[in-house]
């Protein structure tokens, strides 16, 4: 298993600065063929004293380009020091968090959940086209109607079909008859291959799909499918709050997973994480990327190595037990909010392992949503508002919301 343990600030600093020393130093060796350099020295401090104790800012200034996928073998040798840290990070996500066997996954730090989801769908579309001769209009993404809109973006960009399956209004579970009907309808339209996407905490509700609902229905319909887990919201929460789940690599139906570090991990934006079983990245290989050492297997192309460093630093600062504790605190606060909602008779949905509570809009008001920055399901006609219990959402900050809801209820 990857080496995930709590490390001291000194250890973290040393590891990152050692890695930077293994990257090319544009001031020292003067590589002549790269369209990149350190950040502009007239604008960004290169030698401020605080940088000696600031590994992330130093990495930003060094500006390594992590183009390509570094779990596959060859990569740009100019940045091999920080690429090794990204490799370690992918190992932690795949093995320590998602229970993959050691060395069994590839992956990279994508620009976000949207790109990581699109990378998965791109890989499976190409697989069905190359290995099974499917045409784009014979391939269909299937997901619940609580899907994130990156699904429709992917279908649009990749020129394939997409179908959303209805969910039960109160508990957000897939309606199995609708799932069966959707598959049958798509088959009638000529679809032979499905890309199922199970969500590990949906954007609006924090609800969690059962991947076996898709697998059972698609197997029963005798069609080809591959399954991706969209854990952009839940990937760094749910595996800790519900460790005995079936949405990770212990389940052979799960082939790839998206996790987003720029949500619950509070990493900088640009830290979506894509993890897939070995043997699949080849379907996203762009051979024309011949000037890139090791070629490219990602949607994004050039990307900042500082992003991987930031996520690695956060996970190593906490370690697995510290992370678990952090999640427990968020769950405790969410439990407390749920108790208050029950007391007030506010109708809500909450998955017991999630830090999202979504209540029916009728129990609040647009003014209340504005006051507390609550996000509606639909800005034009809200039916639900959600509260996401993050680090800054303390019990002290939740109390006034509950009091206002009480006042609205009494009116
Ligand atoms: C479930 C889910 N998937 C994908 C995404 C897209 O993530 P990003 O905004 O990082 O592209 C989100 C964003 O909220 C999400 O909630």
Low-confidence stretches: none
Helix content: 25-40%
Kindly state the mean pLDDT as a whole number? Answer: 95
Assess the beta-strand content as a share of residues.
Answer: 5-15%
Describe this structure in words.
The chain is α/β, with parallel strands linked by helices and 411 residues long. It folds into two domains: 100-302, Aspartate Aminotransferase, domain 2 (3-Layer(aba) Sandwich); 320-410, Aspartate Aminotransferase, domain 1 (Alpha-Beta Complex). The chain has eleven helices and eleven strands. The protein has helices at residues 9-22, 55-62, 80-97, 113-132, 150-158, 176-188, 211-220, 238-241, 305-344, 366-372, 395-410, and strands at 105-110, 139-144, 161-165, 193-199, 224-231, 254-260, 272-277, 348-349, 356-360, 375-376, 384-388. It is globular and about 70 Å long. It starts with 8 loop residues before the first helix and ends with a helix.
